[in-house]
Design a protein that fits this description.
single chain; mainly alpha; Rossmann fold; two-stranded parallel ribbon; two-stranded parallel sheet; 7 helices; 4 strands; 54% helix; elongated
């Protein structure tokens, strides 16, 4: 169960949380209690809980920051074997994809070497991700379009978007979601 306890500073949120967790804590249970706290308070919160319980340690209690919770989720889902990739890394990945697919591109193949183009294309992909555009959406847009500059551009973008997504799905984890 996930519950949010919100209120002003000094309104008793921490006391209430510790009191309720203390009441729910049972050493014999196998279910873990998770206390989610800001990064800078993890040691302090753990010590407060142990003091409140009169314990020297705790077995089924996890005091986690948001980063630690994310790390644990990634560990349990197997996502830790994927490499985190930054904006610069995405641009470098796009450059490699352009090199690989350059001969198949009808419009953008010649533009890959131009100054600032990779960063602009990276921004285009970021915008598509934010708008939750899928490869299927791109292919639907191509249906019924006559052979024109617009169609050739969309074909190139679709090819590159597919290749980018395949590479990201195989080996990379984005450091910042789009």
């Amino acid at each position: 169960m996930l519950r949010f306890i919100v209120g002003r500073a000094g309104s008793g949120k921490s006391h209430r949380i510790l009191k309720e967790m203390s009441a729910a804590y049972d050493k014999k249970k196998t279910d873990n209690l998770i206390l989610l706290i800001p990064e800078q308070y993890s040691l302090e919160a753990s010590a407060d809980f142990m003091e409140k319980m009169g314990q020297e340690g705790h077995i089924h209690l996890d005091v986690l920051s948001f980063k630690r919770l994310a790390h644990r989720v990634f560990e349990e889902t197997g996502a830790t074997d994927r490499v985190q990739i930054s904006e610069l890394g995405k641009t470098m990945l796009l450059r490699r994809i352009f090199e690989k697919h350059g001969k198949d591109l009808k419009v953008y193949g010649r533009m890959a070497g131009r100054s600032g183009f990779m960063e602009s294309f990276n921004s285009l992909i970021a915008e598509m991700k934010r708008a939750q555009v899928t490869e299927a959406d791109m292919e639907r847009q191509l249906e019924g379009l006559e052979d024109s500059l617009l169609r050739r551009k969309l074909e190139d973008i679709t090819t590159l978007y597919k290749a980018f997504n395949e590479q990201m799905d195989q080996a990379y984890l984005m450091t910042k979601m789009f």
